[in-house]
Amino acid sequence: MKQHELIVIGAGPGGYVAAIRAAQFGLDTAIVEKEPALGGTCLRIGCIPSKALLESSELYQEARHGFEAHGIALGEVGLDLKKMLKRKDAVVKALTGGVGSLIKKNKITRYEGHGRLAGSGKIVVDTADGDEKLKAKHIVIATGSKVAPLRGVKLDGDRIGSSTEALSYNEVPGHLVVIGAGYIGLETGSVWLRLGAKVTVLEYLDRILPGMDAGLAAEAQKIFEKQGFKFRLGAKVTGAAVNGGRCTVEVEGLDPIECDRVLVAVGRIPNTDGLGLDEAGIEPDKGGRIPVDEHFATAAQGIYAIGDVIRGPMLAHKAEEEGIACVERIVTGFGHVNYDAIPGVAYTHPEIASVGKTEEQLKEAGIDYRKGQFPFRANGRARALGQMDGKVKILADAETDRVLGVHIIGPRAGDLIAEAAVAIEFGASSEDIARSNHAHPTLAEVLKEAALDVAGRAIHY
Ligand code: NAD
After folding, report:
1. What CA–CA distances, in Å, run from 390 to 165, 220, 221, 410?
2. How far is the CA of 167 from the centre of ligand 1 (A)?
3. Residues 251-272: pLDDT tens digits?
4. What dihedral angle (degrees, nearest 10) is formed by the CA atoms of 379, 380, 382, 384?
5. How far, in Å, CA of 182 to CA of 361, rounded?
6. Is 317 touching ligand 1 by the criterion CB < 6 Å?
7. Which pTM value belongs to this model?
8. pLDDT tens sequence across 220-230
9. Is 356:403 a contact under the CB 8 Å cutoff?
10. Residue whose CA is at the smallest distance from ligand 1 atom 41
11. Could you tell me the distance, in angstroms and rounded to a whole number, from the CA of residue 219 to the centre of ligand 1?
């Protein structure tokens, strides 16, 4: 039996970062991963390949329709989908390979195979060469999440699939039906819409992007409709089937919808398959998540859990933060995650980004707030870019002026939100942002102006 001081199960963004932090502290650390490529869902079949395709499809769209306005005349623009997909695969390969190098550099022992808890401090890894028995004082579960099933819809791994299939369609579907108007549905739907597919989004709720600021989501929907997205809100999907290369989607109260492919994007569920939770004495909650205390400790002595497999949003950067905090707590006794300062970004066009509380949450909690808003169309850089859709909304405590939430829809919102996350982390007031100098002409000035608007002092609007 091989022994380590700390073993992480799962090499996604939460797991590999936790392992590196442990190695930095000098712990004899190992990581168990069943896939040959490290990086988890995010790097292999999630965030990274989807962003690669979002960039490529946006360039294609721009080349077809966007350059003329800049006075740039192009000849006929063609699509080489095979090459686009190959480039995406190369981006993934470079990054997963990079994680492999980081693991080596930090002298972390890697075990390839499915890991299972096997009693106090013990793990069994099902490797290609048989069972490998391991022992550790500290075990961190970072096994992530998997696609949530939808009743009545059987994924066939091809025409009716999840985001995994939708990142590798070998042709542009004539008509793609997306079930679920969340992050995956809108991002992946954007890719195929830009490449020429008709995209119909079926959403059970009466709004898109649940959890995001409702006003921004409504504004986003209008922009997406202008781009060509067809939305059916309040649509309850009851079934989907493939018949001779065509798909039929059944929706309660509507005529069946015919299409070429179906993307099921109705959420993700924790992945605890074959993990041996029972044997370890850990009972998942009703949603299948592993219950943990504020320091990520499970009910079992010496076993911790982080990331998608525990409570909170299923986001790579949240998992990373938890991985670091969990290991720091184990080693130093201190470690903390500020869940109010974790941004969420939808990488659509324009991007939608958010950090802290929404107006709905503040109203529900009975917190008085002041609101400052500023549109991108009044910003010089946005005009120069030719991307004027969207706005920034800052919510500040009515009494203390402390920034409680920032919501952005507009160009590069995903990058701009970083300033807001830092402001919230530092307990800044809207006055602090308003009095911080922002370079001109930049998109970031929209944040400053929205902060000024909290006190009714915006200059350019
Ligand atoms: P999601 O929870 O964001 O959205 C799922 C959507 O499906 C919801 O709007 C829900 O109302 C709808 N839905 C559920 N059942 C339905 C039904 N029967 N018919 C029609 N609609 C239905 O989930 P997702 O988009 O699948 O993403 C999964 C996870 O991955 C999320 O937790 C998300 O945080 C994460 N993710 C994040 C990013 C990002 O940060 N940019 C990108 C992709 C995925």
Report:
1. 31, 8, 12, 4
2. 16
3. 999 999 999 999 999 999 999 9
4. 160
5. 19
6. no
7. 0.96
8. 999 999 999 99
9. yes
10. 346
11. 19
Query: Which tokens hold the place of 447?
Result: 């944040």
Q: Is 267 in the pocket of ligand 1 (CB under 6 A)?
A: yes
Long-range contacts of 361-369, Cβ-Cβ distance < 8 Å, separation of 24 or more: 361/405, 362/395, 362/404, 362/405, 367/397, 367/404, 368/397, 368/398, 368/399, 369/395, 369/396, 369/397, 369/398, 369/404
When pLDDT is averaged across residues 287-310 and rounded to a whole number, the result is 98
| Cα–ligand 1 centroid distance for 185 (angstroms) | 7
Taking phi over 0 as left and psi of -120 to 50 as alpha, with beta for the rest, 220 belongs to: alpha
Residue that the structure tokens 């809100």 belong to = 233
Quick check: helix, strand or coil at residue 332? helix
Two structure tokens written together for 399: 């009494």
Site to probe by mutation for ligand 1, drawn from 165, 204, 349 as the one with most ligand atoms within 8 Å of Cβ, is 204
Catalytic annotation present for 4: no
Residue nearest to atom 26 of ligand 1 (CA): 267
Residue carrying the six token digits 């009095």? 435
For the CA of 151, the nearest atom of ligand 1: 18
Point out which residues pair with 259 in neighbouring strands.
247
